[in-house]
Amino acid sequence: xxxxxxxxxxxxxxxxxxxxxxxxxxxxxxxxxxxxxxxxxxxxxxxxxxxxxxxxxxxxxxxxxxxxxxxxxxxxxxxxxxxxxxxxxxxxxxxxxxxxxxxxxxxxxxxxxxxxxxxxxxxxxxxxxxxxxxxxxxxxxxxxxxxxxxxxxxxxxxxxxxxxxxxxxxxxxxxxxxxxxxxxxxxxxxxxxxxxxxxxxxxxxxxxxxxxxxxxxxxxxxxxxxxxxxxxxxxxxxxxxxxxxxxxxxxxxxxxxxxxxxxxxxxxxxxxxxxxxxxxxxxxxxxxxxxxxxxxxxxxxxxxxxxxxxxxxxxxxxxxxxxxxxxxxxxxxxxxxxxxxxxxxxxxxxxxxxxxxxxxxxxxxxxxxxxxxxxxxxxxxxxxxxxxxxxxxxxxxxxxxxxxxxxxxxxxxxxxxxxxxxxxxxxxxxxxxxxx
Length: 436
What we know:
With 436 residues, the protein is α/β, with parallel strands linked by helices. The chain is 35% helix and 18% strand.
């Protein structure tokens, strides 16, 4: 890398980490940054990165031809013509690839369409409780390059890896953990096949003595991993695995059996004591916006599942909560997803009120009214603002029931991201939940 001209494409969280890493270690002949946002340079301290060339604004992609190597941030679309050309010329790498190539320790990579964040966090908590040298990196931890300078051979890195980070990755972790597999991110990938191919890199480059721990109750995944060269460890009958341990956290036990079972299995592979695994689970701190309990207000239980960006994850939430849901807040950006099965599940659970955001809210309602038995149809209300959605939830949700925010759709359009959507939900729940 030292004799190359390197361009960082996209100054997001990972792009900024890559810039810090390259400058700190003097790993490039010349460093440039390209980003569509003309104001992104304001993220960094003035004068901190002297000598960096900036390519900002609408024509930022023209800079790609001027550099030998491009470190692409996950948020940059892969099918822009200039990016596709750079991929074909093998000029593109990523922060994830740099970490994999240079990490002296062992990597436990965790992926899946849903549940990878909570699974990675549980694994980290369990290994930490056993006093193993472990770090949590990736989307929910710190960017990995922060640790490369001081990383040691005996360290373990639990890496939550998204499909964006796995795309065209040419290395796999020594231990791979795979939660489930559904079509997703179809606004980023051409189709589900391309998305699945990206996910396959979690195990595609593994060696025979590496491990692949996967959810064997997921039909897509069970078939998907058949050709893996590594040692496959299927995980099923989650409740049977969990009941061997004393788990006080009933929310985890009831709503996250898959994630618990996968994390426990990792602990068992390392021959950890039963008490260490139990302590790790007890120490676990819930992640925001993933079936997060907001609280009980006016005898209604509010749950934030804003990270539900595909219909399958909303179906998971409905099955986890059973028949306790009185109202469901749904909908968002339309990313070519199929809502037929979700509509069936909503009718099956006999949810009385749907509060719907455009544009998929309309799409979901059209699927529901295809069922001709009108007596089974829920009440449906279309809204544009989270404030109105929560206000209506207080009005229509029966006492003793649950109001669940689980959109089953990406957040773009009405909200900046799933975090803003979830935070607004919590804000207005607490606001209207006060005695008035």
